[in-house]
Amino acid sequence: LGPTICVGEILVEIVATTVGDGFTDAQPLVGPYPSGAPAIFIDQCGRFGGAAAMIGAVGDDDFGRVNLDRLKRDGVDVSAIAVDPDWPTGSAFVRYRADGSRDFVYNIATSAAARFGWTAEVEALARRAGHLHVMGSALSMPEAREVIARALPIVRARGGTVSLDPNLRKELRQGAEAGQLFATLLSECDLLLPSGEELELAAGTDGEARAVGTLLTGGCGEIVLKRGAAGASAFAPDGSRVDALAFEVEELDPTGAGDCFGGAYVTARRLGLPTEAALTYACAAGARNVTVRGPMEGAATRAELDAFIAATPRAPG
Ligand code: ATP
After folding, report:
1. Atom of ligand 1 nearest to the CA of 102
2. Catalytic residue numbers?
3. Could you read off the pLDDT of 199-219 as tens digits, one per residue?
4. Is the CB of residue 33 less than 8 Å from the CB of residue 111?
5. ipTM metric
């Protein structure tokens, strides 16, 4: 039907190589790595072999070129990525705490990442898209919200499908308007990809089974729950459920696992694979990604995932 499209922040990520609380002390950092949850998602779609296109903006600087070069290399259509002459490419600094949680320092609002709008290129892309994937993180930016809200009915009108990853980040504020669009997307998405507590937050109820039931009754077409090192589960409105064990890997850098998982799942399903096979590819994409430093560095081709699946044991359930 047309490419999978994703709208939102394109960033570079700088990662602290030491574990600790925050960024107030001088410490070794590595990067820049191409990043931004929507960009990681779409890169994994392209690498897996699906038609994929990105909507967003970078600055006219090296950080922007790092992203454009990577996305192009991985087969992503970048025709609707604007190069902003006035604002620098957005950035995210991440540092891990001893308990595995993360702190981010973002520069999005005052960067090119948040300064893009509805252009002729964006409209042309929306008019040939077959699937729209929305990242919750992008809903914190008014400009991205507007593009998503305009693209949604266009993609729908041509029979396209929609997926939503809540991707909640405490550092990114979601105001009332973001909440409204999130609620609309929740009630009409074909696929929801929450992780951890996002499922219960999205449903507004406690307990996994009740949250799944509430969301499916509320109009969401399918739910794929990401469980980190415990794997994933897919829930369909007919009550059927498919569980997948995680792959056993050594985690070096968990950022981007969920985005790679989503990119592989959406693309595998759009290429016609059944739920179980798509879930296996998605778990493999997430697991492989955490073994590599840098959020987009582990995005894998289908052949790379086949090799990874053949060589890697599944974690005990
Ligand atoms: P992020 O926000 O960091 O991108 P997320 O919280 O959205 O990630 P996770 O549940 O952490 O998503 O990871 C997505 C998927 O990747 C999991 O369902 C699992 O299949 C795989 N995965 C993540 N971490 C690991 C791990 N340590 N070992 C094996 N598989 C993992």
Report:
1. 3
2. 259
3. 999 999 999 999 999 999 999
4. no
5. 0.97
